[in-house]
Task: inverse folding
């Protein structure tokens, strides 16, 4: 698990975050070894490319809802525990959780930036 995020401990609220669902999954147009997921929200779409996980890797992250935020290093996936954002996790771990059906919340400004 990564640490040092400025959003850790922030409460997930409906003004800052939008609930999202998967609209489509396909190859990333920028990198052949990545998977692109298009998320649908009430504010519009947001796409993000995830690295394909190694099938031999064991998911060590807790299975929780996820929040996608705009952080110092770009978009980051964060577990949500007790309604609060935790340190960012690896994108490959987040991909497994998203495809497995975990609830996804996207920071509103990420969606608005892509309009």
Result:
């Amino acid at each position: 698990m990564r640490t040092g995020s400025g959003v850790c401990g922030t409460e997930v609220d409906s003004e800052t975050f939008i609930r999202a669902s998967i609209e489509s999954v396909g190859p990333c147009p920028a990198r052949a070894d990545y998977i692109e997921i298009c998320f649908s929200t009430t504010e519009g779409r947001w796409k993000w490319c995830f690295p394909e996980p190694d099938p031999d890797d064991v998911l060590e992250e807790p299975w929780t809802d996820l929040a996608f935020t705009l952080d110092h290093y770009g978009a980051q996936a964060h577990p949500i525990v007790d309604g609060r954002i935790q340190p960012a996790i690896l994108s490959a771990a987040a991909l497994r959780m998203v495809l497995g059906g975990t609830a996804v919340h996207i920071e509103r400004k990420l969606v608005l930036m892509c309009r």
